[in-house]
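Tip: read the tokens left to right.
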């Protein structure tokens, strides 16, 4: 999907507090505006997890190219105790 990033989840922002990196299943990670079609798409977290790594240059205003890495999510392991 190619488009311009118009909004980022706070977990992908570089300058936030101790909750950095926490996302829940279904949270919008980013919103991409597809300029030619004049529509926006929401990229959601597929599972609960933490942001382990953010793709290079991911910030508001950047145009995403096809196959560009947005982030790497690590699953949260729930204890059964």
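Filled-in amino acids:
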């Amino acid at each position: 999907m190619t488009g311009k990033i118009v909004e980022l989840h706070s977990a992908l922002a570089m300058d936030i507090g101790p909750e950095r990196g926490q996302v829940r299943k279904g949270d919008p990670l980013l919103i991409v505006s597809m300029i030619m079609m004049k529509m926006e798409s929401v990229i959601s977290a597929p599972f609960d997890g933490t942001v382990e790594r953010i793709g290079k240059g991911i910030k508001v205003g950047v145009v995403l190219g096809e196959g560009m890495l947005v982030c790497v999510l690590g699953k949260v392991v729930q204890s059964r105790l």
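The radius of gyration is 13 Å. The longest strand covers residues 28-34.
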